[in-house]
Design the sequence.
């Protein structure tokens, strides 16, 4: 068992290995009783008497359906009784010399009420969708909570997305309201958020009638009369009670990167999501009252929803909100923030760890990290070498590392070890969280037992599960429950070892992950094909030393046209404009054709191998419509 790393003896823990065994067994044998107990982590207006009521065929999912509650009350108001003066948020700005802003729970409450009143003044009502396009500032979290307070449904769009991507997400959920800031700051560049909102709303067919603008950098921005409002002008302190919500009322919509085409707006509801994030935060991060928690994810991603806004605040935690990036002003910034705010629990993504590892240990050791007691990662598989560096150098070998596997669809952590309780295995997420029933199946859906590798499914529902794709339940059923009938299919490949530890091997299909920003190949392809000279495009990832993955684009042009450096530059520009700078293609390969099956589907597997320069193992090419194309593609491969 030498690949296992034992947890340090001294770790405080909310759950021992024996506790885990007993609780996990009970969560499967008696799920309703188990989860109704954990539902008591929250304050309910009407406590639920029902646990899970769900079916995967047909697909209908509900938890705690007769309960009533408000998650803003749970994240903020209820802490006023005993934690009014406890720190809730510590805002660390992009610029290390900028002003730190600390909010106690009482101050957070006041700010959320002001924002909720501003939303009401703008005309936001219960059930309305509100799109957030925000920098990582206090008001981002406040705006999410204010929506929850008045029963509005937030849809946060990452501030790095282009106006086109933003418009698509506004239109998809028919949102009439946007909350944004004048500008954001990330590293040495300002992010023109308001300008992008204007482009999204003015140049596309949206129904947006109210835009609330938070003054952040003080940049001069255009304000449209009657539509745009400064937050400070609409904010007011008057009473704003929390709206009683049914457990199954929508809390938020969040779009995934959309590997299979149009982004999917996953819908999460109030009670189950609240119970799931509150419970997972408590156990996975072994949260103690004096901890200073820091999750470096942006609120534009599910990690920022579950482990910045909801999980920590539902638990009354103190946490850092960081506006900046890991490499500005230098590669020691994360560790400087850890030292400055005495962070005890730190949660980040493998791409950040890999990027910082490249820069050497000195940036880490220059800062005092003695406050750290627990480290976590999420977002993609972490290679054992990076895991060991994180554990040994960043955590000085003292801190357990939790490698947490989960998805936008799962609402919160699904596979992990529990800190202090379980031995860790670098590269493996670990064991199922309470109530999670993983199953590995082969391509035909046959269940695999014992140590095995296959496609990861989950066979029963858990409270934090997404309920549907907003406005398209058929697509929800098709995407997740039709590959293997009666099971939730994660789309991830996975190995299980003899100890029952799960290791994610990657997507069964393909998605590109550039520096932690995920995007679907189809989204990039659609952007390329918009160019009048392009007839078809196929996009795959290739390994990139810094970004984790780079973007390799195969492009066919309309008849009679030839590729050129100028055209490649135009295409890069086009993708930047459509999706955002993170999607900028690294390599553009003009080709006269794309490899397709006889039924007309592009064979990405082959394109990926060629992009990776691994054509010794192309696999079966016999189903190709034109097998001779492969040699031409290999010859034309673009390198660097
Ligand atoms: P889309 O569904 O549109 O393709 P996405 O899957 O990238 O987008 P997320 O829900 O943010 O969007 O990511 C979840 C995926 O990230 C998982 O399915 C898995 O592939 C990967 N992932 C997350 N955490 C881990 C982890 N700890 N180890 C390995 N892979 C992980
Ligand atoms: Mg996914």
Sequence:
């Amino acid at each position: 068992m030498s690949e296992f790393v034992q947890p340090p003896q001294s770790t405080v823990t909310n759950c021992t290995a024996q506790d885990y065994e007993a609780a996990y067994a009970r969560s499967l044998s008696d799920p309703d009783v188990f989860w109704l107990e954990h539902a008591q982590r929250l304050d309910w207006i009407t406590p639920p008497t029902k646990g899970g009521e769900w079916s995967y065929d047909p697909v209908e999912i509900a938890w705690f359906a007769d309960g009533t509650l408000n998650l803003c009350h749970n994240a903020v108001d209820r802490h006023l009784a005993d934690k009014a003066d406890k720190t809730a948020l510590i805002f660390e700005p992009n610029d290390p010399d900028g002003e730190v802003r600390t909010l106690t729970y009482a101050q957070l409450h006041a700010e959320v009420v002001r924002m909720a009143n501003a939303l009401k003044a703008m005309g936001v009502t219960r059930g309305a969708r509100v799109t957030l396009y925000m920098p990582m500032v206090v008001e981002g979290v406040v705006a999410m909570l204010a929506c929850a307070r008045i029963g509005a449904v937030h849809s946060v769009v990452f501030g790095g997305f282009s106006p086109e991507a933003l418009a698509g997400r506004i239109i998809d959920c028919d949102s009439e309201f946007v909350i944004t800031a004048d500008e954001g700051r990330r590293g040495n560049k300002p992010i023109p958020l308001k300008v992008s909102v204007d482009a999204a709303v003015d140049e596309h067919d949206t129904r947006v009638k109210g835009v609330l603008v938070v003054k952040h950098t003080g940049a001069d921005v255009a304000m449209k009369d009657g539509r745009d409002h400064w937050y400070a002008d609409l904010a007011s302190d008057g009473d704003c009670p929390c709206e009683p919500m049914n457990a199954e009322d929508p809390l938020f919509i969040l779009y995934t990167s959309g590997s299979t085409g149009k982004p999917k707006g996953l819908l999460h509801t109030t009670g189950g999501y609240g119970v799931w994030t509150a419970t997972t935060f408590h156990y996975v991060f072994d949260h103690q009252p004096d901890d200073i928690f820091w999750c470096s994810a942006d609120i534009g991603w599910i990690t920022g929803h579950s482990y910045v806004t909801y999980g920590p605040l539902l638990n009354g935690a103190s946490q850092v909100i960081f506006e900046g990036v890991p490499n500005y002003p230098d590669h020691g910034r994360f560790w400087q923030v850890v030292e400055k705010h005495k962070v005890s629990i730190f949660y980040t993504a493998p791409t950040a760890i890999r990027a910082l590892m490249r820069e050497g240990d000195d940036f880490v050791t220059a800062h005092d990290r003695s406050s750290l007691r627990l480290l976590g990662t999420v977002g993609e598989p972490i290679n054992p070498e990076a895991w060991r560096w994180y554990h040994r150098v960043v955590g000085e070998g003292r801190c357990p590392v939790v490698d947490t596997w989960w998805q936008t669809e799962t609402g919160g952590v699904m596979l992990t070890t529990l800190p202090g309780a379980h031995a860790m295995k670098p590269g493996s997420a670990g064991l199922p969280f309470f109530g999670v029933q993983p199953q590995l199946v082969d391509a035909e859906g046959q269940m695999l037992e014992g140590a095995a590798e296959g496609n990861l499914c989950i066979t029963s529902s858990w409270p934090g599960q997404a309920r549907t794709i907003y406005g398209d339940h058929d697509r929800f059923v098709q995407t997740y429950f039709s590959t293997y009938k009666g099971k939730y299919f994660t789309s991830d490949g996975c190995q299980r070892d003899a100890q029952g530890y799960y290791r994610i091997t990657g997507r069964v299909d393909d998605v590109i992950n550039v520096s932690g920003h995920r995007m679907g190949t189809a989204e990039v392809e659609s952007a390329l094909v918009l160019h009048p000279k392009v007839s078809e495009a196929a996009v795959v990832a290739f390994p990139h030393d810094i970004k984790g993955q780079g973007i390799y684009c195969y492009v066919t042009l309309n008849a009679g046209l030839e590729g050129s450096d100028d055209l490649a530059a135009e295409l890069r520009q086009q993708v930047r404009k459509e999706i955002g700078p993170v999607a900028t293609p690294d390599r553009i390969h003009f080709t006269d054709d794309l490899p397709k099956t006889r039924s007309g589907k592009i064979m990405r597997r082959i394109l990926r191998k060629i992009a990776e320069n691994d054509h010794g193992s192309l696999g079966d090419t016999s189903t190709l419509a034109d097998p001779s194309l492969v040699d031409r593609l290999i010859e034309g491969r673009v390198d660097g």
Q: What stands out?
A: The mean pLDDT is 93. The pocket of magnesium ion (ligand 2) is lined by residues 256, 407, 491 (CB under 6 Å). The CA atoms of residues 14 and 286 lie 6 Å apart.
